[in-house]
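Saturday, quiet lab. Running sequence design on the structure tokens for the scaffold JK sent over.
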């Protein structure tokens, strides 16, 4: 998943309207935010093999510290606990914990069997939706459209930043996803891939910024 993870964060605003979208977006992205750091540290490994799946060419050889189910629960507890200690907002902490774990679940749907249950575990899991590119794109696109609709109905722009920064965020996600889906170029070597993936840290900051310029509160249709 790519934009599917963003969809989880945007939709979470509905159930935790007082939480910053920055934190809600960071939660389902967290495993992918940690992954390039662990690659650069040499704790995890990836290689490029064109054709390994129909959707991308990444062979995720070893990434139990960022992407095993048990560690996703550990990261969820750590992130939600930190958030709770600073805000005492229960709905936000629950949404963050669920968001972090949702990453493993959504990756389980899309990845070929390469996801471990725990560090050191030999059995690997994945349903392989990436081998059906049309279905992958359809599922993720529908998730994003639904999540954008939920977020836009749960909040309203207070100024041009809240309006245009939000829609430019959505537009850039769609542009990145479309370019990635249509590209036939191989991924860069692992070190370059890891450095490039660090740009993911920009997205929670961007979401935090425009969300501060939007007011939370579920909007209702006018009745005559």
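Result came back. Writing it out in full:
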């Amino acid at each position: 998943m790519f934009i599917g993870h963003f969809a989880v964060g945007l939709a979470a605003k509905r159930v935790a309207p007082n939480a910053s979208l920055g934190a809600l977006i960071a939660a389902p992205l967290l495993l992918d935010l940690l992954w390039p750091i662990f690659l650069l540290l040499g704790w995890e490994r990836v290689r490029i093999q064109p054709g390994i799946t129909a959707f991308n060419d990444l062979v995720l050889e070893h990434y139990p510290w960022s992407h095993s189910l048990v560690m996703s629960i550990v990261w969820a507890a750590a992130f939600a606990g930190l958030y709770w200690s600073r805000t005492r907002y229960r709905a936000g902490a629950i949404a963050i914990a669920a968001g972090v774990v949702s990453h493993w679940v959504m990756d389980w749907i899309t990845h070929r069997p390469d996801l471990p249950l725990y560090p050191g575990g030999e059995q690997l899991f994945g349903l392989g939706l990436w081998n059906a590119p049309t279905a992958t794109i359809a599922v993720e696109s529908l998730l994003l459209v639904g999540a954008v609709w939920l977020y836009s109905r749960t909040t309203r722009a207070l100024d041009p930043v809240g309006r245009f920064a939000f829609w430019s965020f959505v537009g850039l996600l769609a542009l990145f996803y479309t370019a990635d889906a249509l590209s036939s170029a191989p991924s860069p070597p692992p070190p370059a891939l890891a450095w490039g993936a660090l740009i993911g840290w920009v997205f929670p900051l961007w979401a935090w910024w425009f969300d501060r310029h939007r007011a939370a509160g579920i909007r209702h249709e006018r009745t005559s």
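Notes for JK: The first helix runs from residue 3 to 12. The radius of gyration is 18 Å. Ask whether to fix the surface positions before the next round.
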